[in-house]
Amino acid sequence: MKKQLAVAVVGWCVSAAAVLAGGAPVADKAAWPFAITAAHRPGTYWWVPGSAFTKEDIDWNLRQLRDAGFGFVHIVPIYGARGAEARYIPYLSPEWMRMLDLTVRQAQALGLFVDMTTGSGWCFGGPDLPADAIDVKARYDAATNSVSLALGMKVKRAAPGGEGPMINPFSPRAMSLYLQRFDQAFDAAKPALPRAQYHDSFEYQANWSPELLDEFQRRVGYDLRAHLREFFDEKPAADPAVLARVKYDYRHVLAELHRESIQVWTDWAHRRGMVTRDQAHGSPANLLDVYAASDIPETEMFGAPEFPIPGFRRDPAMVRDGDSDPRICMLAASAAHVAHPPGRQLVTSESGTWLREHWHESLAHLKLELDLFFLAGVNQMLFHGTCYSPKDAPWPGWFFYAATQMNPRNSMWRDVPYLTGYISRCQSVLQAGQPANDVLVYWPIHDLWMDPAGTAMRLTVHRHEWMARQRLGEVADALLAKGYAFDFVSDRMIESLRVRDGRLEAPGGTYRAIVIPACTHLPEGTAARLAELAGRGVPIVFEREIPADVPGNSDVGKRRAKLAAHRAQLEQAGVIVAPDAVNGLARVGIAHEPMADAGLRFIRRRVGTSHWYFIANHTAKEVAAWIGLGVPFTMATRFDPMTGRSGRLPQRTQGTGAEIHLQLAPGESAILKADTADRPGPAWPLLRPAGEPVVLQGQWSVDFVEGGPALPAAYTTRDLRSWTGAADPKAQAFAGTARYTLRFSAPAPAADDWVLDLGDVRESARVRLNGHDAGALIAIPFRLLVGAYLQRGENTLEIEVTNLAANRVRDLERRKVDWRVMRDVNILSVLYKTFSPDQWPLEPSGLLGPVTLIPHDRRSSP
User: SS3 of 221, please?
Assistant: First the structure.
């Protein structure tokens, strides 16, 4: 056995959890502390082409998802598949409603539940809407100084029977009219009910509604008609300051009309025994308030986040750039945390949308994006997603054009249960108790709306410059970097706050301080409420100065005078005016989490007297350090959400208080429970490298065990390389699993334990050593403890590696197989260009290594 001297492991660079993925029984493998339910398991968008349901295929699809660890599906009827026209079922027809009833009942029998879009495709809309209820854009006629309305968007990717214009999103009346069709269908069919109705992200084109001018005058107090010329022409002769104020009032009215429309929909769902899920982003409104108007706020990321983690791969040709901003995701979570009571604080996410080019997403990519969602406050994620497909459909089955192909035909499906198990454990913690955030950060959206240019401002996740250019985004970055736990709060939410014993009480939790980012405009009503809260002992931090101006164009002089009076009250109450938020919070004694100084990210919740953390290391370096916590504690227990193992962490007391010793490898995550009572329990193992890695060399046998289109011939090799270079040309098209087997002699050096490092894995692996299941590895770091299974003399190592399905799709295209069977958009590339898989390079597949064994010592303390 030859030692590899070129690679050395120095210091505390291997954390125990990073190697405990199914490894030796060195920590407590007791039951997970929270019972896992369907609500804790991930869901998936379930696109149903042509609504072509059959009883048999409903059952088969749902069973596949249940067995892979899913908890629910979200029905989205879309355009159909070519050749299946005879199976299409018109949307909301009696037969469609019968299939909905069958699906919900079968899901319930399997321990699953169902959500559905209140419509087909997206956004809301369809047939038979009156002309004054549809999506419209304003057209200004300078000759007559009047506004006419032009048709906006039609429903995107509509299902048969769901085609038509989108509704007007700024008309509560239009929402009521739209829902009448659903009342008729549900009243006639009386089906088993889904859990939730769903509204997708705001992709309407509307910037007006027929009732806007009257609503504007009623709500603001003056007539927008008197300002139409400068509103639309934006002539240089117009006073830009006045125009900005008029545009502000217009945007504020639009925002309220949209929020009220969503509230109409939520109230309708409640009357029918359902709840609502809403993606508020994209709307030209205060997203916090629109999210809060639904029962379950939902966020999303769009594209491929970047990480500095060693081994993380992000091929520029296979990704979209710049479409992910966790700060925007936090808006959805903040709405639930602040506005919804404990027990009703679910936050969902559309996950994996355009994460990579089709069939290029790996479980490792997904795990890291999901960690970002968890850190932003998501606690019930849905994959985007799974296409309903008949069991007998030729490979790759029916598919959706903007998806992580999370379905049983994708080769990665074999190891999906390990990812869904990880998600379920994390979400069981993140759904428990209530948020444990100390700070509310006010969103001064009024400065954003006080802009003389343009009309409606759509606040999207796809383009997030609106967040980056606000002081709000800068404050969020600074607080996250320093380790402050916070939620965002709106003017409307501030009105709901109460005070008890100097602490803020929101419907969803308690807070210790409010931060007002530097801004120019503050509504006088918000200032009055802040003065009242400050007078009752709540710490309030203003950055730089207390704003001196009000937004909008109505009664500006009177409102400025009121604001000036409230500014005096705020000063008299002793609010803090600080150069920045971090400085101000330090001055009022709000503790931050020291782990942020080491680059760790976290979110925490309070369950009884305990605090529960989700922690992730998304840096390039191992963290192995003594770290204090931002909450009182007597002991801390670590849980590995990938395996369920747990153990008590070492502690010490320093001058600054108690500290724990925490080890986290790049890419690794952990659950931490901080208790105020001391409870006995096993210790979390502390491991330290005790020598150089030993490269496992010899003759590897490679056998293809599962996948297609055909199993390549087995082969042997002494050099670990992509199996696409095997002698059998079938290996170039193969998507599936190969078993790598090596017989080797145990390394000579004695060690307390051994870590098996698989090196470069394309893309997931299951490991057996001497007949024992050592664990599954689906994400960075690809290593685990195997000392308990290592024996003297000869050992047999088996590693089953599963690759991406990309090479198989490439082969289909090169052989000109007619597999693109979807109508409408069929399929596009990740960059919304022509989809050309025949031009893809071959994706490296299998075990690339090097595979090493690293000796480790066990320590009782660092």
Answer: coil
Measured CA distances, 481 to 376, 478, 517, 599, 736 (Å): 14, 5, 16, 8, 41
For residues 16 and 689, give the distance between their C-alpha atoms in angstroms, rounded to a whole number.
11
pLDDT digits (tens, 9 = 90+) for 605-625: 999 999 999 999 999 999 999
Q: What are phi and psi of 683, to 5 degrees?
A: -85, 145
Judged against a pLDDT cut of 50, whether residue 379 lies above it is answered with yes
Strand partners, 757: 783, 852
What kind and span of H or E run contains 3? none
Token pair of 426 as six digits:
């994390």
**Whether 43 contacts 380, CB under 8 Å:** yes
Instruction: For helices 471-482 and 326-339, give the axis angle rounded to 10 degrees.
Output: 80
C-alpha distances in angstroms, 622 versus 196, 369, 663? Answer: 42, 20, 7
Q: What is the DSSP string of 526-592?
A: HHHHHHHHHHTT--EEEESS---B--SSSSHHHHHHHHHHHHHHHHHHT-EEESSHHHHHHHTT---
How far is residue 654 from each of residues 628, 651, 657, 674, measured CA to CA in Å? 9, 10, 5, 17
Average pLDDT of the residues of the chain: 94
Task: Specify the pairing of strand 686-689 against strand 852-859.
Answer: antiparallel
Residue among 225, 23, 30 nearest 681 (CA) = 30
Q: Is the pLDDT of residue 27 over 50?
A: no
**Residue 45 in contact with residue 393, Cβ under 8 Å?**
no
Per-residue tokens: 495:
């009105």
pLDDT of residue 316: 87
Q: Spell out the residues 6+ positions from residue 502 whose beta carbon is closer than 8 angstroms to its own.
A: 536, 537, 538
Percent of the chain past pLDDT 90, that is, above it, reads: 89
Q: How do residues 492-542 score in pLDDT, each as one tens digit?
A: 999 999 999 889 999 999 999 999 999 999 999 999 999 999 999 999 999
SS (H, E, C) 28-40: ECCCCCCCCCCCC
Alpha helices in 483-523 (DSSP H): 491-495
Tell me the pLDDT band of 21, cut-offs 50, 70 and 90: very low
Q: Would you call 363 helix, strand, or coil by DSSP? A: helix
Tokens of 181: 């069709």
- Residue matched to tokens 């849905």: 382
Q: 409: closest CA among 435, 391, 431, 432? A: 391
Give mean pLDDT, residues 29-55: 93
The answer to whether the bond into 396 is cis (omega within 30° of 0) is: yes
Spatial contact of 89 and 95, defined as CB atoms under 8 Å apart: yes
In this prediction, residue 681 has a pLDDT band, given cuts at 50, 70 and 90, of confident
Q: From CA 586, how far away is CA 142, in angstroms rounded?
A: 55
Whether 122 contacts 115, CB under 8 Å: no
Q: How far is Cα 239 from Cα 453, in angstroms, rounded to an integer?
A: 12
Residue 577 and residue 351 in contact, taking contact as beta carbons nearer than 8 Å: no
CA distance linking residue 40 with residue 24, whole number of Å: 27
| CA–CA gap between residue 252 and residue 284 (Å, rounded) | 9
What CA–CA distances, in Å, run from 424 to 30, 35, 369, 516, 640? 16, 10, 15, 36, 12
Question: How many angstroms separate the CA atoms of 197 and 217, rounded?
Answer: 33
Name the strand (E) or helix (H) holding 45: strand 43-49
- The alpha carbon of 415 is separated from its chain's Cα centroid by a whole number of angstroms, namely 21
E strand residue ranges, 280-379: 296-300, 348-351
DSSP state of 226: G
Give the torsion sign (CA, 489, 494, 496, 502).
positive
Paired sense of beta strands 380-387 and 610-616, if any: unpaired
Give the model's pLDDT for residue 12. 22
Nearest-angstrom CA–CA distance, 502 and 511? 10
Residue 714 has pLDDT above 90, yes or no: yes
CA distance 580 to 517: 8
441 beta partners: 488, 515
Calculate the CA 686 to chain-centre distance. Answer: 32
